[in-house]
Amino acid sequence: MPENKRVRAIVTGIVIAMMLGLFSLDYTVRRGDTLRGIADEHGVSLSELLEVNPIPNPNLIHPGQVITIPGKDAVHVVARGETLSRIAKQYGSSVNAIATANSLSNPDLIRVGQRLVVSATSGAGGGASAPRPVDTSGEPTSSKRSGRFHIVKKGETLSSIAAQYKGVTVSQIAEANGIVDGKIYTGTRLFLDGPGYVATGAEGETTYTVKRGDRLADIARSHGVSLSSLVSRNQISNPNLIRVGQALAVPGGKTWQCPVPGATFFNDWGFPRGGGARYHEGNDLFTDHGAPVYAPVPGKVTHSEGTIGGRQFVLEGNDGVKYIGTHMSDYGSSGQVSGGQIVGYIGTSGNARGTKPHLHFGMYNPDGIVVNPYPSLIASGCK
After folding, report:
1. Residue 206 and residue 257 in contact, taking contact as beta carbons nearer than 8 Å
2. Residue 112 CA to chain centroid, in angstroms?
3. What's the CA gap between 365 and 16, in Å, rounded?
4. What does the angle CA 64 – CA 66 – CA 69 come to, to the nearest 5 degrees?
5. What is the C-alpha to C-alpha distance for residues 76 and 363, in angstroms, rounded to an integer?
6. Pick from 335, 266, 371: which is nearest to 56 by CA?
7. β-strand partners of 312
8. What is the pTM of this model?
9. Tell me: the pLDDT tens digits for 157-190?
10. Which has the closest alpha carbon to 310: 295, 297, 329, 291?
11. What are the C-alpha distances in Å from 382 to residues 62, 223, 258, 374?
12. Which residues face 347 on adjacent strands?
């Protein structure tokens, strides 16, 4: 092979490797992989990897498992004939962003073999210079979302992000993204405005499954109903005798049921998916395959199946909130359901094949805006 073609092939290989290794935010485990090896390969620490992946035992991963790699910068090696404009287009960035990141005084002068840092967050939503859609009402309010967002860079805090945008506050970002503990993660998308939401439940009969240590009086108190009404509705002859797993109909209470009790989860709202082509609008709730999924509130359930979400449910809640759950292994009740009724079972259907069993859980507030379920899950004691 002629020398110039060989060099070009090597450079092209390096470019492709850089793109796959540094911009692929979803990594599929191969035979022989270890979590530490994956972390080293992608230039992140093991603790950073564990922080964004709910893995109980770091020594136990399996081929086909999908690991989320926290967002980071890529390095592009300039090939013959390339321009900064072409490179920017290749990465979904801009000429100005790359020139600034690399202190280029003349964007038209780059050389073959030059290494350019391309920020994974320098695209349309990545910084203060990004285009900002405007709220057409002209009056930004917490009940609306303008669409402005920021992709978190390594080392940033809510305070440093808010400081980059005129009129944006830390509390505004936290509310819009359901951040209850101040934690943010590199590579995630944060909306700069918009509504927060904490579900409070809906009036109507709910179903409660008895857990170890429960007492009937405590169940009645937590649901805001009288002990006598609970006894009467369930035809209980001895209020001191209830059993673990027993399903109790709770009349007229206003509660919010954890959709997957005992699940492992964290605030993964806004995490990149598909290499950053889209962002997570919900929370993944991990537990055993086949575990029941409960309706958080009374309402009407429909089931469907798709190539991405697999087996899924939509619950039009009596509280005005639309709840969705995807990747189920099987369906439960449909039609009109009570809160706490089983609407499906945990699985890995759709594009979740090869991952740990979980439910992708999402919420749309009464105005039809997608909101982070995390505050509702925390407020209702799901964790």
Report:
1. yes
2. 39
3. 42
4. 140
5. 39
6. 266
7. 304
8. 0.59
9. 999 999 999 889 999 999 999 998 888 999 999 9
10. 329
11. 28, 15, 6, 10
12. 358
